[in-house]
Amino acid sequence: MVGPAGAAHNRVELLFGVVDTELRRVQVLFNQLEAPETLEFDDLVGLGVSMAVQRMRTMQQRRLRLQHNAWLVAQNPRDFRAIRDDPDNRHREASFHTQLLFKAMWEAADVLTTRQSEVWHDPQGRFMTCDAPVLVPFRHNVGLSLTASPYIIWPVGPHRTVALSNDPQGEKAVIRKASGKLVGMVRQGVEQGRERMIFASEEQRERLPQGKKFRRRAQVRLRCSDRSPSGEYVPPPACCVECRDTFAAGPDVALCNQGLHSPAPDMWLHV
User: Fold this and answer.
1) Per-residue b/e over 177-201, b at no fewer than 16 CB within 10 Å?
2) Which of 2, 11, 57, 212 has a 20 to 30 Å separation from 112 between CA atoms?
3) DSSP label at 216?
């Protein structure tokens, strides 16, 4: 007999089975795409959903959520509870991450499906990828939102990268021959956006830094603002804390000194 926990686990496995089947279909479709006019509406929706899931379904996103949660708990332990594992619940992180993934998936997909789909084709096969395969490139080492980023990038093979752009062309998809600039954008996105691993073909290994440790990766960045997420003015002494990603060696926390914020040393447990 399967208990409640086992039944819930089985449902999650079934959900991920459906996600992985669609992911494989979409990846093969765009890796081999030659005639964009043959794409169906469901293909574009499937692309948006697949990229949204691939972006969230990483160890990097779990680590970043742990950093943010540690800060929230330090500010208000009555309303926020720690989500990291402990001896009484060794699957708390995974449970929280799974719930967040499926909740955020649809919100992200709504944004991604409004963008122009581009397929960058490189005959030389110079594209690489990493263990955080859907990339929102940093600008001046600070992460942009899905709506503000010029491109959201997903390398689907050495010869192909799918890029969702903010430049609508009125086409289902646009196939472009990849310039050196686009190849470099993908490579920099991979080098900065990876969590632990970069995947490249044997021919591309020489393009990676040799004998150099990557000491920086995505971290949480917190700043005070006098505007709410909806743009409303927040009069002092109150403030609104903006949470973004940054490319750094550790959490980047620089908040106001009005006595509104408590230190959160546990953030550095998840560097």
Assistant:
1) ebeeebbebbbebbbbbbbeebebe
2) 11
3) -
